[in-house]
Design the sequence.
């Protein structure tokens, strides 16, 4: 049986690299979609590429008023079965250069607020939540202090909520891609990954993995080798990961300070 057929999925960040691929796969599986993004033009382009015409809601999710309007919009259209918190931004640079407010707002506060807001709706439908984290939600990486903080936070929030709702019909899942070929990564980050020999996944494959998790009972999914090993290693023997990253620090600093040009 196709679990997704007829289910209504609210997907944030649908106009992004991973989000658009997830939207295509969900639509092909017969899901009814409510897609959000800030760009009306990008949403329109995506709308024409999908098997089933989606509902679209263009907004900046960092506004709590817009979040309330989105909730109302979803309720007016029959509620939702699945919430996928995928919208996010990244920043690469040394700690002194980072702007934390925007990062914390969209990567951490917004998914927490949307979970809170949509819980009553999801309860009615035995629904599920998927929060899109990152390998950097388990491995602190130089040059990504703010981003790592938000994704570590999101992982903690997701785990706590999942355990809080363990006796209920709602499933709460954490999905953690590693570096993926989307425009969230600046050209400096792409070049750094090439220099360090870090693989980057295609958004099509990442979207397939997210759909697999959605259909399964798997509460946590981490993508890619060796990142999955590093995630575990960092939990048990962080000093080993300290050493591995220290050996790469000179290169990372060069890129983070923009001195690679
Ligand atoms: N790509 C990677 O290397 C990678 C690795 C691990 C985890 N992830 C995570 O995967 C998720 C998707 O990333 P991606 O690579 O697909 O990034 P992306 O291509 O840059 O897409 C980001 C999406 O988030 C939306 N967004 C950003 N700020 C928003 C705001 N204030 N309000 C509403 N929507 C907002 C964007 O909407 P508009 O474009 O319409 O503004 C866009 O749809 C993120 O949570 C990211 O942290 C990505």
Sequence:
């Amino acid at each position: 049986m196709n679990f997704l057929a007829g289910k209504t999925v609210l997907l944030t960040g649908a106009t992004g690299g991973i989000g658009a691929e997830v939207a295509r796969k969900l639509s092909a599986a017969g899901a009814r979609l409510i897609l959000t993004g800030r760009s009306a033009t990008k949403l329109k382009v995506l709308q024409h590429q999908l098997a089933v015409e989606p509902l679209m809601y263009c907004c900046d999710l960092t506004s709590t008023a817009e979040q309330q309007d989105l909730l109302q919009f979803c309720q007016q259209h029959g509620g939702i079965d699945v919430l996928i918190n995928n919208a996010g931004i990244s920043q690469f640079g040394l700690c002194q250069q980072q702007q934390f407010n925007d990062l914390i707002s969209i990567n951490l506060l917004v998914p927490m607020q949307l979970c809170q807001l949509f819980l009553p709706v999801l309860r009615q439908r035995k629904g599920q939540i998927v929060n899109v984290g990152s390998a950097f939600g388990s491995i602190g990486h130089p040059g990504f202090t703010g981003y790592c903080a938000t994704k570590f936070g999101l992982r903690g929030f997701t785990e706590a909520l999942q355990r809080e709702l363990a006796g209920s019909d709602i499933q709460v899942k954490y999905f953690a891609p590693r570096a993926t070929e989307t425009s969230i990564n600046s050209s400096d980050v792409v070049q750094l990954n090439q220099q360090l020999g870090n693989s980057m996944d295609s958004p099509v494959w990442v979207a397939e993995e997210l759909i697999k998790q959605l259909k399964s009972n798997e509460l946590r999914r981490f993508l890619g080798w060796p990142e999955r090993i590093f995630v575990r290693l960092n939990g048990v023997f962080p000093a080993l990961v300290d050493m591995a990253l220290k050996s790469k620090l000179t290169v990372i600093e060069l890129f983070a300070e923009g001195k690679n040009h």
